[in-house]
Specification:
single chain; 370 residues; mainly beta; Thrombin, subunit H; six-stranded antiparallel β-barrel; 8% helix; serine-type endopeptidase activity; hydrolase
Length: 370
């Protein structure tokens, strides 16, 4: 029997009627909004949704709409689960990292982008390898590109697990010496098996491009959040979903090829890319008989700065500052495809636009929580 889990709501209303921030004990930070402005409410059971009430405005009930899916899998279903199953997890906000992001350069610090994951594959001969990236969005959900899990040209590869808390693939545990000479070490990485794979039903891959290139991976067990394993936020509110990001500088990260000689990086890399207007990008790709859709974001770096083959499925990220000037990172794109020759500067990179798939993501999670 479902037991109502009491959630304390703290909501600060603004006198001018603007949207205010709120907080729940289980699902973290949120916005106090009307029901029709919160897609995540569709995932929650009615009993739990009631406990998210944070007031009323113009005779309409308001709910604390979580900013992310951080602890969605932790909603209790019976009395036995109402104990504090993951007190550490409830204190973690999505899209926040321990270390400040280092500007410039391509090498990340040890605690940057703790939601970046590596997807493990098993070959027919039993050997394992990591050939795609992904992004942690909740305790047991990772989002990646559909072509990373349903590539018709890689039938001999099977997704087996994801690796979280990784930074340098050559060492375990990872350590980094700061400017003062102090050594900062992370716990050993965590490998968790994947028990369900959900590529988008309409995924299609051809010489004319890739469509609906998004997939969700459900992990066999929830991960415990640490300073080195945290979820990113996804754009659940309509203000972020409405941004086309043209002219914005966004961040990509991954362990992919970082030069034209197909050399893989052992350390997580990052780069800044600029979003290109859709029409301009579409004209560039039409020369190669590839038509783009509004469900994709086009972005390019300068010189060799861009995503390459090994970064497929990795994140395209936006750093947002809330009312209290606290930075939170949002997943706005998933690396899909681009130039075949890394670093040539010939074509921009193409990313699946996450905001176009929020309903699909929420429906998939809602129907497969257990």
């Amino acid at each position: 029997m479902y037991v109502l889990f009491v959630v304390i709501i703290q909501c600060l209303f603004l006198a001018n009627g603007q949207i205010s921030e709120c907080k729940t004990d289980l699902l973290g930070q949120g916005w106090c909004v009307a029901e029709d402005r919160c897609q995540l409410l569709e995932v929650l059971k009615n009993e739990y949704k009631t406990s998210l009430g944070c007031g009323a405005q113009h005779n309409e009930n308001l709910y604390c709409c979580p900013k992310c899916l951080t602890n969605l899998s932790q909603i209790p279903n019976d009395t036995a689960q109402t104990e504090d199953r993951s007190a550490r997890n409830t204190a973690i906000k999505c899209g926040q990292m321990l270390a400040p992001r280092i500007s410039g350069g391509t090498r990340t610090s040890i605690a940057e982008f703790p939601w970046s994951v590596l997807i493990e594959y098993v070959k027919e001969d039993g050997t394992k390898g990591h050939y795609c990236g992904g992004t942690l969005i909740a305790t047991n959900w990772v989002v990646t590109a559909a072509h990373c899990v349903k590539d018709p040209y890689a039938k001999n590869l099977e997704v087996s697990a994801v690796r979280l808390g990784e930074w340098d693939t050559d060492t375990n545990p990872d350590c980094q010496v700061d400017v003062r000479g102090n050594e900062d070490c992370a716990p050993p990485y965590v490998d968790i098996s994947v028990d369900r794979i959900f590529p988008h039903d309409s995924f299609n891959m051809s010489v004319n491009g890739i469509r609906f290139d998004i997939a969700l991976l459900r992990l066999s067990s929830p991960v415990t959040y640490t300073d080195f394993i945290r979820p990113i936020c996804i754009p659940l509110n309509d203000s972020l979903q409405s941004l086309d990001f043209v002219g914005y500088s966004l961040i990509i990260a991954g362990w992919g090829h970082y030069n034209s000689e197909n050399v893989m990086s052992n350390v997580l890399q990052k780069a800044t890319v600029n979003v290109v207007p859709h029409r301009k990008c579409d004209l560039q790709f039409r020369k190669y008989y590839i038509a783009l859709s509004k469900q994709e974001i086009c972005a390019e770096g300068t010189g060799i700065i861009d995503t390459c083959l090994g970064d497929s499925g990795g994140p395209l990220m936006y750093e947002d500052y809330g009312m209290h000037k606290t930075a939170q990172w949002y997943l706005v794109g998933i690396t899909s495809f681009g130039r075949s020759s890394c670093g040539t500067g010939s074509l921009p990179g193409i990313y699946t636009r996450v905001s176009e798939y929020i309903n699909w993501m929420l429906d998939t999670i809602k129907n497969n929580l257990n």
